[in-house]
């Protein structure tokens, strides 16, 4: 390429950068005050200068990325000038020579603090589960300081997911899985419904591309008929709204690809039979004080036209979710020969903006209503306490993240103290969870509760509107059984703290007992070697677990005599073996080494790692991969490298939480091997059907059947077959042949 051509390209890029920057300023204009535009320009120039020699994997100038992140902050989250500045500068401290001090000097301490928070949680976590969990923990801590850190981080992650095509396949899997595991739940909790849905769809696009393409294709094919159905469905609703003189908008939209995929997996029904494939949204433009009455009036009108399903009414107007979401949902049956269930969402313009833009939109209206603020603050205070507790109790970051992550998707229950104080707990919370939420000591001493003046056990599951009064006793102590029914992070961590403290005494007593008995048996010193032998013999997790079990009486001291006898017997056998069979031992050693280093004919069927080496592996039983499947390698702790399909149910957790142990894996197509594949064949039963199926498999295609089970009920035939096939092409040919057998209606691949 000539120098002149490069100069032209660079000139075009400069024009494009300015074009994108001007678009950002135009979008931000309604949010800007006083000196904001000048500061944004300074941030833009600093970012351009800092990133001037950097390019993205796609080859584009790196500056495109921070501009795009700032654009998402404005257009899709509704953030203001401070967030725009931080978005433009979010990578400069991490990736360039610019320091936090320089940013603080030019833009102030608030901007520097947000960028510091963003820098601490930068990048994809590839240092193992504990490092990743620690990063997520830092992210949650920033919620306490400034929620904008996470909102900007979500914008950053959304743009990364939108531009993931240019990344290597293993990086796509890691980033997608981490996004699904951490960022989509966070977007949900922060009320960013549109961003949460897009993140989930993009994750599916890269982790299960075939499933994503199939659903997208079906949605495209059914678009015309779907739009016609929606138009017919909303016509009477639109007329009713006009008669009621409501200023309104009605939207019909399909469910997200991920939610359809989820429903297909859970309900095991064909695409055409998903009853709520789309939703209709009625958005009313009414004053704040008339919102509730207007929404219920519209609900009444809708149910006059269409029969509602009473089990599917959800009222989030009276009790908004803690992420600020307010809406009235009902599912109704459409009219016509073939009725279909349709979800109708009724809300106001204010509610719709909060539903799409979450807390950024809620701040805009916070002067009018603080109910949802209180709900979110209640959840946030639980997170703060859980983080604080984990510091004191040295709870592992992984354990903490699992607990907190599970709370991100949970719905809430709204309950009250006898004095009328609102307490927001996650759905499924019990009377004991409530007690710990009131105070740690109340939880620890709680013996029961009165709910609505009625006596209930500690395990009673609370319902929205319950009024709870806790009963305590000085003699009560927390027990391990409590962990079986509490669900909140705070209750779990506090109970574990009490149990650990109580267990310390049992460990001390147990160690003294073991030392004393070993001296009687002639083992005078409890060395590290002896402790490890005892730990292995009694299958204890660690030394503390070993001594605890002796101290509690779970292991009797007489067992030490049996341990000593077995140890001496083993030592005598080893000594005799080493004297009599030195040559045999050497041969055995060579055999073992060959096993370890992959002395197997099929070891070169899969190329593993960045260098595409031929390394020994085993196939994961959870997903049974075969040659041709999209796969990855995972380094286990005790079983070497295991190969999983990228669509394996365990893939999201392995890829997101243990990124450093994931290896790239590609099939060497020239190698043919036999793999186990499972097929589920369904059809209408007839004489000789099974004979025809087995003939096609065994005789026509020469495929070995490893296992076969058949069931017939009410004339419907279902067979489960385990086959030995060479690769996906071989399997597809087999499925195609079986589909031609008379009576066979459906064939699907089992796990």
From TrEMBL:
Pfam families: ACT_4, HD_4, RelA_AH_RIS, RelA_SpoT, TGS
Annotated transmembrane regions: none
InterPro entries: ACT-like_dom_sf, ACT_dom, Beta-grasp_dom_sf, HD/PDEase_dom, NT_sf, RelA/Spo_fam, RelA/SpoT_AH_RIS, RelA_SpoT
Gene Ontology MF: a single term: GTP diphosphokinase activity
Ranges where the TGS domain occurs: 411-472
Keyword Hydrolase in record: no
Family: Belongs to the relA/spoT family.
Function: In eubacteria ppGpp (guanosine 3'-diphosphate 5'-diphosphate) is a mediator of the stringent response that coordinates a variety of cellular activities in response to changes in nutritional abundance.
Protein name: Bifunctional (P)ppGpp synthetase/guanosine-3',5'-bis(Diphosphate) 3'-pyrophosphohydrolase
